[in-house]
Design goal:
The chain is α/β, with parallel strands linked by helices. It is built from 16 helices and 18 strands. Helix 9 packs parallel to helix 10 and helix 14 runs parallel beside helix 16. The longest helix has 27 residues.
Length: 473
């Protein structure tokens, strides 16, 4: 049953946020049951007198929070349990809001350098450029930040003389612009499978034909066959510490993808959101650096390394590609937020970003190590998990008799949450997989949370097996 939606157009809170909050409340309080289907975006938009994109944005937030799950061609369904369960006697049981959450792939706000950030804001607002910064800004972004990022990219071999840059509201807006410019008429887009649902949904809901391809080290031949068969317009990849698996694509595989894409005439989109979060091992050259045919668009963001709430990302690519993206951005976002961009530029130029990056890498490495050790110790026999060298996520494959959604339901009752693999499916079922996002948790929380998951997973008494060393995925 759809909750009684009441939206206030005079409120400073955007309509999509109001809609999101009301659905979230309904799910958490039991007004919408797990497995219940939500109305299609077009239908709900019509009944509420909203633009369809407003409803789609609300559904996107709900899915990112693990509250609903979208299935291409079937619709969106409630995924989460309510905050209060009913006992068999009909009496409300204990609240199940998670105390240890592996659900969000984001940095811990406890690591934000607030004093340095306050100083940076004061410096920007006290500068001679403050009044101009607070004026309307160009859709392409704050010009000094564009120059800074482009110079940095050229030093790293990521940008060439014929490349341009566009500042976006995080990588998600870049995905939306790419969909609108290059894949709005049913063109095929190849994605990694499993993949971050926000990436999958922006293309699927925008009209693209989305195809998932597993891109493990031993699966490059499958990609080549898929490209030959599908003739995609775009291939979208996260080669460094992919979300949700945490895996990194080896250099030979990167070169192979570029060659396959060149022969097919496909655009390669390299999403390097996590590239700065390498804790150990050798950094690999960006695909944009390896590409000599000018067919790659490079995306990155400050969201994972600095302050996610400021929503500043960027796209770098050939001028003829970027011109189309900038034009599309002007249609919906005529002027950009120069203040956030100016603050992040000052934060970078002052050296504070480099110092913060160092702290993030140190704490991230400690948290990743705690997660891997706890997986080794706590997961049941025949579990497998990835061993990333950076990023924010570890991918777990449970024994085939364990369902990750059922484990998630039971874990929430014990105060632990995570996102099951079905959240990240494109075309291949992931019933026994789950993502552990460790970056927002302290090592002691990681160990405690995995102890709970291990205890629940091993409690299936009918499946007792000998303890074995977990294998690598």
């Amino acid at each position: 049953m759809v909750p009684d939606i009441r939206l206030d157009s005079s409120s400073p809170e955007p309509l999509y946020r109001q809609l999101y909050e009301q659905f979230k409340t309904a799910i958490r309080h039991g007004g919408l049951a797990r497995g219940e289907k939500l109305p299609p975006t077009r239908e709900l938009a019509g009944s509420l007198g909203l633009n369809r994109t407003t409803v789609a944005a609300a559904y996107e937030l709900l899915e990112s929070d693990g509250l609903i799950r979208g299935h291409v061609g079937r619709g969106s369904f409630v995924q989460a349990l309510p905050d209060r369960l009913e006992t068999r006697d009909g009496v409300a049981a204990l609240p199940v809001a998670a105390r240890i959450s592996f659900s969000a792939s984001r940095p811990s706000e406890m690591l934000f350098p607030l004093e340095e950030f306050r100083a940076t804001c004061r410096e920007v607002l006290d500068s001679a450029e403050a009044t101009q910064i607070l004026q309307l800004g160009p859709a392409a972004g704050y010009a000094p930040l564009r120059r800074y990022l482009l110079d940095q990219a050229r030093e790293r071999g990521i940008a060439g003389p014929d490349d341009d840059i566009l500042i976006t509201s995080g990588c998600q807006q870049a995905f939306d612009l790419l969909q609108r410019v290059f894949a709005s008429r049913g063109e095929t887009v190849l994605l990694e499978d499993p993949v971050y649902p926000g990436l999958r949904n922006v293309f699927a809901r925008g009209g693209a034909r989305v195809t998932g391809v597993p891109l493990g080290e031993n699966e490059m031949d499958e990609l080549a066959r898929a490209v030959e068969k599908e003739r995609p317009r775009m291939i979208v990849l996260t080669p460094n510490f992919q979300n949700p698996t945490g895996t990194t694509m080896p250099e030979p595989a990167r070169k192979m993808v570029l060659e396959v894409a060149r022969k097919a005439g496909a655009i390669v989109v390299e999403n390097d959101l996590y590239g700065d979060l390498r804790y150990r091992g050798r950094a690999l050259p960006a695909m944009k650096h390896l590409d000599r045919t000018a067919g790659t668009i490079y995306l990155s963001s400050f969201s994972k390394i600095a302050f996610p709430g400021l929503r500043v990302g960027w796209a770098i690519g050939p001028r003829h590609f970027l011109a189309g993206l900038i034009e599309a951005k002007q249609a919906s976002d005529l002027h950009s937020d120069q203040l956030s961009q100016a603050v992040l530029l000052r934060f970078a130029e002052s050296g504070r970003l480099a110092a913060h990056r160092g702290r993030m890498r140190k704490t991230g490495g400690e948290r990743l190590q705690a997660c891997l050790e706890a997986c080794e110790r706590e997961l049941p026999a025949r579990s497998r998990f990835t061993r990333p060298e950076g990023g924010m996520n570890v991918w777990v494959q449970l024994p085939d008799w364990l369902d990750a959604c059922e484990l998630a339901s039971r874990a929430e009752q014990e105060g632990v949450s995570f996102l099951p693999g079905r959240t990240f499916e494109v075309s291949r079922p992931q019933p026994h997989s789950l993502r552990l996002s460790f970056a927002g948790l302290e090592p002691k929380e990681i160990r405690a949370g995995l102890a709970v998951l291990g205890k629940i997973a091993r409690s299936d008494s009918g499946r007792g097996v000998r303890r074995e060393e977990p294998a690598l995925v």
